[in-house]
Amino acid sequence: CCSVIVESLGGLLEYFNDWAYVQCAVRGVPFMDATRITFSLIMCANMESVQAALLLNFVFWFGAVGVAAIGALATALVAAALYGAGAAAVGASVGFAIGLVAGAGALGIVNSGVKALLVCWADSPDRLRETHPEFHEALMQKTLAMQ
After folding, report:
1. SS3 72
2. Which residues, 6+ apart, have CB-to-CB distance to 75 below 8 Å?
3. Could you tell me the end-to-end alpha-carbon distance of the chain, in angstroms, rounded to an integer?
4. pLDDT tens per residue across span 25-64
5. How many C-beta atoms lie closer than 10 Å to residue 118's C-beta?
6. From the record, what ranges are coiled-coil (predicted)?
7. In whole angstroms, what is the distance from residue 76 CA to residue 87 CA?
8. Which residue, 16, 53, 74, 115, shows the most beta carbons closer than 10 Å to its own?
9. 123 with 41: CB under 8 angstroms?
10. How far is CA 77 from CA 80, 82, 89, in A?
11. Residue 95 near residue 74 (C-beta atoms within 8 A)
């Protein structure tokens, strides 16, 4: 029971840290200031609705595992063709590990970009309306649909 609570709190802190690091990157502030800014955004701005519907981390890991599965399949086929059926399992394991690292690295860039966009929108929605009205309208529709 206690381990579940500790793991849940750890997950929440890690999730909060992701958003705080976005503040560090976007605003160039120290981490402690970024945590205060992040907490304010979560409590006061559009972030409550965005976070409720945000499946970004799920999509990120699902994509990384998909890349890993493709890597495992490809290396298993190559290993089986070159070295026989016994090497296919080793090839699949190596391919899965390499694919997971490559997929997580590539999709991590997209993950960070989307989080930066959402933080900037929550902080100043008018700026997004001026520069990219179609994105602003889509975010507003999603936010209103959740309320």
Report:
1. helix
2. 91, 92, 94, 95, 98
3. 33
4. 888 889 989 888 888 877 776 565 556 546 677 788 889 9
5. 20
6. none
7. 7
8. 115
9. yes
10. 5, 9, 10
11. yes
